[in-house]
Amino acid sequence: MSAKAAAKSISCLSNTRQIGLATQLYINDSDFVYPQSKSTDINPQIDDYDGSIENPDNGSIFAKILPYTGHGGTASEDVMYQQKLFSCPEDPNPFDISCPDVINIGGPHVISYLINGYFVWGLNESTVSEPASVIEYAERRSVTLNGVPAYCDDIYHPWFNYLNPNLNNGVVDNEMDAMVGAISTSRHLGGSSFTFAEGHSKHMLWTQTWSPTSNVDMHTPNPGQQKDF
């Protein structure tokens, strides 16, 4: 790995750490509720198994944490693109304008990062029993792979996966596919940057975070209650 590539990987990890810290500052001011963009729901993996309750949407959670990222202004999606924080240096297309205009028409403006869908439905910090082991943010797959267009949302849904048929008979896409899912799983040194629910970030291989065959799931809060592989 070149020194330049290593520097980009370190910079991206630093971005995710800052996003994690900003989120912690946000929830401290918000009755310990993670940034919310959907209607309150305690079982999104069941109620949204086919994406049927995605609307109404209350805007990007990344805009909601802007006042805590050092920008100094009001929360606005328009200024997200002015912050290098939301652009991984190794990401070839962090602010893909074709996402809301061509690929996912009417969808959100995208950045290099994604939030785990479990966190956007009014999740309270107290209900996450092991926040240091639950991933809140990941890197977005911004390129076309095997004919599958870039992932054009700011949320990924761990319950949208073909390996969970008891919940997901209505799933069209597998957002947890290692190659063509929502997450860029091998952007840096064969892995990518992940931010956890209590704010820390770590470079990890995909299989360290998600491997149904090995019963590994770091994307589901309280997986013993909600996972069904």
Explain this structure.
The protein is an alpha+beta fold and 229 residues long. The chain is built from six helices and seven strands; from the N terminus they run ααααβββββαββα. The protein has helices at residues 3-28, 44-47, 61-64, 98-103, 206-209, 223-226, and strands at 113-116, 135-139, 155-156, 192-196, 201-204, 210-211, 216-217. A five-stranded mixed β-sheet has the order 3-1-2-4-5. A hairpin with a 4-residue loop joins β6 and β7 (216-217). It starts with a helix and ends with a helix.
Summarize the structure.
By secondary structure, this protein is α+β, with helices and mostly antiparallel strands.
The CA-CA distance between the termini, in Å, is 36 Å
Radius of gyration from CA coordinates? 16 Å
Q: Strand arrangement, largest sheet?
A: 3-1-2-4-5
Helix content: 10-25%
Strand segment count? 7
User: Are there runs of 5+ residues with pLDDT below 50, and where?
Assistant: 224-229
Tell me, what's the shape? globular
Strand content: 5-15%
Please give the count of helices: 6
Tell me which oligomeric state these chains represent: single chain
The succession of helices and strands, N to C, reads HHHHEEEEEHEEH
Structural class: alpha+beta
Outline the biggest β-sheet: 5 strands, mixed
Q: Residue-averaged pLDDT, rounded?
A: 87
